[in-house]
Amino acid sequence: MFNINSEEIINYLKLINDQNPIHSHIVPGQMIVQMALQNQRLKWDSYSVKYIKTISIDELIQFKKVSENHVVILNQHDETLMKIIKG
Fold this sequence. Notes:
Blueprint: H1 6-16, H2 29-39, E1 47-51, E2 61-67, E3 70-75, E4 80-86
Antiparallel strand pairs: 1-4, 2-3, 3-4
């Protein structure tokens, strides 16, 4: 299980020059995607993302590879928050 704290988000937002105020309480989706692909050691050139629920700062999440072309991000209650599909 992982959680992303506000300091990590601030550093990420500075790197990508994102000033969206919504990220003061939710984690940027692309940040989660990058973490998931790295965690699962995937080097996909293209993928689509389905955002199901927002991920709050300090929320516990996990990355699960469902198949060769499908990764899901789950919370601590095994609810699906995001889906990443290769292609």
